[in-house]
Structure formats: structure tokens, C-alpha cells
Amino acid sequence: MFRRFISRAQLFRDQLRRKFGKLLFDRASRGGDLGQVKRLLLVRWDAKIGDSIVSSFFFRELRRARPDIRIDVITAPHMASLYREHFGVDHVICCKKRPSYGELKTLALETGSVDLVIHLGKQLKMKDIYFLRCLDADNVMGLDDELTLINHKLGKATAGRHFSYKFAYALNLLGVNALNCQYIIPEDSGRHQLIQKVWPEESVVAFNPYGSGSSRRLNFESVSRLVELIVKYKPAWKVCLMSTPDTKVEVEKWCYELGADRVFTVQVSETIQDAIEIVRLSALVISVDTAIVHIASGLNKPLLGIYNPDKENFSEWHPNSDKAFVLFSSKYENKLANINNIDFYSASEVFDDIFKS
């Protein structure tokens, strides 16, 4: 009850700030021919790896068709190498998580003149609106159709479509067609070899039980029952429980309780690149709704994605793969979403489908 109250209070605060932001900073952009764009800036300061993977093809396809466009990205410092080394953008501008208004003004001045800004936040906050106003670009492309300064509106045009489609639509507006929407998945031979040294000879199911927030985290009981299903269908296979730095101790404990002869974790795994290499080495991936789903889709791996019954979220972030299966948690009236509300009879039917395919 208290968590729900806090959530509503924060929502009210954000809505009030947004109204002030629209009143103070929402002015029409000048507009211009997108065919004449020479410098593009993509705002990605959300620092989410899954979102970045889903949009990765955007840079490759834009570079292929419009090599005349300089591509800049604003993102968090720890994401800079992903965009620079793997996605091939021309310039990465780093921004801390919660910049002040003064810092945003300085950032806009340092960024300089831009022909087109793309910001695909669904409902921009006051600081987003302020920053876009400071940039003063001729063209602004975004999903927040309510804003006057967004003169290329993608919200209604791409509503209910996968987030990758929204980037494909942006490419179409820039005159880029015949798209290859395959995700770019970073490779690191050194980390791959390190993981491979501790990898078993048997086929492996990579199992990621952790998503963002408690509503997307599987508990031990759910993990245990899903492991039992894996063992039932593939008794000779092993299960690799994936972890994050803050869940490593818990996962090691779970592996011991589930039986080290069939369940293990990669103790040398420390980064998202390590997680990518674990997925790359696996025969099947099981994951809650998080970046691992999109990484597995990009690597064309057989996949079981576990989602809460949120239609809007699923329409935009479902596994973008014909090798994917989906298991939804059950929805209970007047209760918060919880990924652990799994109907295991339905889960067994999904496993039937996976291992028959």
C-alpha cells in the first residue's frame, strides 16, 4: 500500500513538472527538409542496455544509406564504448544520470548546432523539454506527440508497435528503406574465451531470473520449479543461472540448493559483455523481461521470455524473434504485477512447444 502511494505521489509530481515544462519551454521548432540533414543527435541518456540493443540497427542502416550524416549520441559514460566501438557512431557525448538545469544548458552549448534531434521518450519530463529547447534544433523527432517542439511526431504513427519499428519508422522518414533490422550484438573474444574455459561440454540453458524492480524478479521457488521442468525435458543438459554483481552471492547459494551437478553459475562473469557471451554459448535462453531477451533475440537463440501481463509493454518490448516463446505471469485483480505468479501447468505446455520445435 505504501509503495503504491509513493508511486502515485511521484507520478503527480512528474505530471506537475511536465505542465510547467510545456508552459515555459515548449515552442515550435523551425522545421526543415530531412533530406538535407547533415548532423543528427540521438538522446539515449536512459542508459538501458536492452533499449540500446533494440535500436542498434538504426546506426548501421543510417550509415549505409546516408553516409553524409554525422551521428552523435548522448548517453551515460558506461555506455559510451558500446555506441562508439560497436554501433559506429561518430561522436559520443557523456551525460551523468541526473544533470542540473545549468549542466543541461552547458551540455547543449557544448553540443553545438544540430539539424535533427531524436528523443524517443514516450512522455518527456520537464528537463527533457528544457534540454530540447536549449538545443534549438531545426527538427525534433519523438514519440511525445503533445509537444509543439516535436515537429516529426512518431507517437500515434507507431503506437502499439515494437520499439524497433519506431526506429525503423524514423529511418523511413530520413529516406532509408529496405532495412535490415537485425540487432548488433557486441563481441569480445577475450571474454568469450574466459567464459568458455569454465563452460561444460553438455548443452546449457542460460537462465536469467533478474529484471529491473521486484515485479520482474523470480524468487527461489519459481526458479526451482522452472529448473525442474528443464531437467524433466532435458535431463542431460545443464542450467547456468545468470547473475548480476549484487545477486552473485544469492545465485551461488541457489546453485548449491538446486544441485551443483545440474545447476551452475559462471563466477568470473562481471559485466554485460560476459552475459552476452554466456547467451552466445547456450543452446536455450530463459529470461524475465529484460535486456537478456533482446540479446538472445539478436543472437537468434531459442528463447523463453517470461513477462508480466502488461499489453502495452509487451507490444513494444516482446522478443523480436521467430525462435521465441512467451510465458505470462497471471494477473490478480487489485494487486501489483508479480512475475512469480506463474501457472506452472501453462509453463509445462510452453516447454512442450519449445522442445518439440
Helix-strand blueprint:
Elements lengths: L1 H24 L13 E6 L4 H6 L2 H9 L4 E6 L4 H7 L4 E4 L6 H11 L4 E4 L6 H10 L3 E4 L9 E2 L9 H11 L15 H9 L6 E5 L11 H14 L4 E4 L6 H11 L4 E2 L7 H10 L2 E5 L2 H8 L4 E5 L3 H7 L6 E5 L15 H13 L1
Parallel strand pairs: 1-2, 1-4, 2-3, 4-5, 5-6, 7-8, 7-10, 8-9, 10-11, 11-12
Helix pairs in contact: 1-6, 5-6, 8-11, 9-14
GO cellular component, one term: cytosol
InterPro entries: Glyco_trans_9, LPS_LOS_Heptosyltrfase
GO molecular function, one term: ADP-heptose-lipopolysaccharide heptosyltransferase activity
Q: Your description of this structure?
A:
- The chain has helices at 2-25, 49-54, 57-65, 80-86, 101-111, 126-135, 163-173, 189-197, 220-233, 248-258, 272-281, 291-298, 311-317, 344-356; strands at 39-44, 70-75, 91-94, 116-119, 139-142, 152-153, 204-208, 238-241, 263-264, 284-288, 303-307, 324-328.
- The protein folds into 2 domains: 12-173, Rossmann fold, CATH 3.40.50.2000; 189-356, Glycogen Phosphorylase B (Rossmann fold).
- The strands form 2 sheets. The protein has a 6-stranded parallel beta sheet, with helices on one face. A 6-stranded parallel beta sheet has the order 9-8-7-10-11-12, sandwiched between helices.
- The model has no long low-confidence stretch (mean pLDDT 94).
- The protein contains 14 helices and 12 strands.
- One of its GO terms (cellular component) is cytosol.
- Keywords: Glycosyltransferase, Transferase.
